[in-house]
Amino acid sequence: MKAENLQLMNENKINIPRFKIYSFNDLINTEKLKSMLVEFKKQGSSNFCLWSEKLQACISLKEELAFKLNYTAYAVRSSCNQEDGDNFSFAGVFESFLDVKEDDLPKKVLECVKSLYSIKALEYIKLNKIDIEKLTMNVIVQEMIKGDISGIFFTANPQGIINESVITAAKGRGDLLVNDVVDSISYFYHQTDKSFFTDKEVDLLSFDMLNEIIETGEKIKAILNLEYADIEFVILNNVLYILQARPITCMNVDNLIVLDNSNIVESYPGVNLPLTESFAGFVYQGVFNKVAQRILQDNKKVKDMQDVFSQMVDSVNGRMYYRINNWYSILQFLPLSKKIIPIWQDMLGVKIKNYDKKRQQSFFGKIKTSMIFIKELFLCPKNMEKLNIQFLEVYEYFNKQNFIELSNHELVAFFDEIKNKLLSVWDITLINDMYAFIFTGLLKMRLKHKYPNNFEEMTVNFIGGITQMESMKPIRELYKLSLMEKGSKKYEESFKTYLEMYGDRTIEELKLETETFRINPELLEKTVDDYRADSTNLRKVCNEELSNTAILKQKGIIRYLASKAMLGIKNRETSRLNRCRIFGMVRTIVLSMGNNLYRDGLLESVNDVFYLKLDELFKLVNYPENMMEIIAKRKLLYKEYSLMPTYSRLIFIDENAKNGYYRLAKHKQIHLKDVWHGTASSGGIVSAEVVVIKNPADATDVKNKIIVTKMTDPGWVFVLANAKGIITEKGSLLSHTAIISRELKIPAVVGVDDILEGLNNGDKVLLNGNSGEIRLLKE
What we know:
By secondary structure, the chain is an alpha+beta fold. The protein has 30 helices and 23 strands.
């Protein structure tokens, strides 16, 4: 296999040291060996020491052989016909030799051939039930390149991470690296995000060389028809040489776990503590269970899918992801799923479009589901109105409670009451999401057909300017507060009302550990003061009643689709605001429970409650125990998580690979481009200085600047109101960044790859919210 691979790569112009292949039959006389192999198979002996001696005694080189190739030094490599194959690797079983002198070639070639029947080879053969008579040993005699650096490149991480490549390199010869004789450095390349990071502070390979290795690996995979490749290389005078390539064995990809943070990263950015992770999982499971009951109306099928519902979301190193395989499993139940899924991907900003296509239902089952789904879409606007009324009744009831006086048993009962009244019917919001996605997608397709040159800009104009948008109300009310006399009765009453109605709306509002206005009213005081000091940018937005003039000029199907899309978006934003209020209720409940546990000596601080999982917290109510040691360990672990990179997609071969994924790393990222492209989501052209925000706590000095960040959530409305524009790495036409920026009338481009690493604070850019282009302006 090695020999054939070398020949194929050489024929396809991969840079390989000169070599010659000597076949098994050309090297030795095999007649005596054949009879001995038959005898070995008949006896089935386990005395491998004896049989190794007998078999190796049958091997001698033919006298006429000559190995004069005029190389300065030689490498002698084994090439068994079943070595490094899909089924057997024979890793470390056969002999290979480096830096061999020409006079020693016959001896080393013979040792290489004899290693076919070494003790460890015979053990491996018997263990794997390999037919020994079918094994042969070719030998590769190769020019020895004494490189400055040697390395191994795995195009997929052998630990089970499919979309992560690993390059391990060290100074000197490759055998020293393999045997851990010299210090090495590993570079991890995330294929989806196209970013490198290292496991050490030192450096060895340039960015250009790393990219050359990656690109060469892709070529080799195509040449050898390998899904995943294990490649040995050497670098001399900054020139890359490939020594050998083989498949990575033992990579079972039948049931891949695909985690994707498209859209969910808006709600759960950065590191999320255990209580948030577990509550999010609880909510997604419950809501999807209900929506399946609503759409399928088949109890048996719903019961069979409980494993899917319980894993709609997942977390790795504190980061939240969709288990996107499971989302596709559910979406494929929908009518015209092959048409709907691309729309869904577009609206959520899912960039990798391929998915496992499985037939989920019979023809008649599909017809039944289609009729129910169409009916639910038709009823969706009215059902959303009913849900909002029901929510406001529960919210009013919540605001009347005095949680300080409640015991933990009463608090759990209150949690269950909210769950039964709201979470049991919240699935209609998923139907509304599809309603908004479908009509926005259809509108976009219709505009593309009629206006192919500027359909994206027109789509943005049509779905912007939605009047009475719920997501704009918090900032409008905040602006009104800033105009009132501080300390007046009207101000105090309005302040209290604001806390009740919008006190949970803030940056990272769905993370239970986030400190909101409701939890700390002083934060609201400070924000009001900031707005009072300078509200120039807000005055026009907050006093102006928006209207969509673009839609008024249209008739027929375009106007119909646009109006339906706007209604879906408006209801979606209402449900998003109410969702943050639900999380605010839960935050209040768990903090009250934490306060009780702290008072009882079961927690070191009230906020330690966020390091417990939801089931652990509820279990403490009936079975009090000291969780301080567990919490202390989690605090250290989640602190380390904050030092780890966040990736848009992770693909694991199984649960063990996922659970074992742990990466402390130093990023190595270099960007040379000065033009980026993303999705135009709010029209307008503006040039300004950028402020790069990697942590929401850094979102302070943004006035008249262009914000550059990973993503935003609805709570960013307070920050965006003072900005001149917004650029995000994540997002889509219906992401919160897009919707809020349209309402604030500031240009926005979302879904821009690598923009965070490409720009620095103080850089000046031209942001084109009509075309989606961002251009670095040089002095």
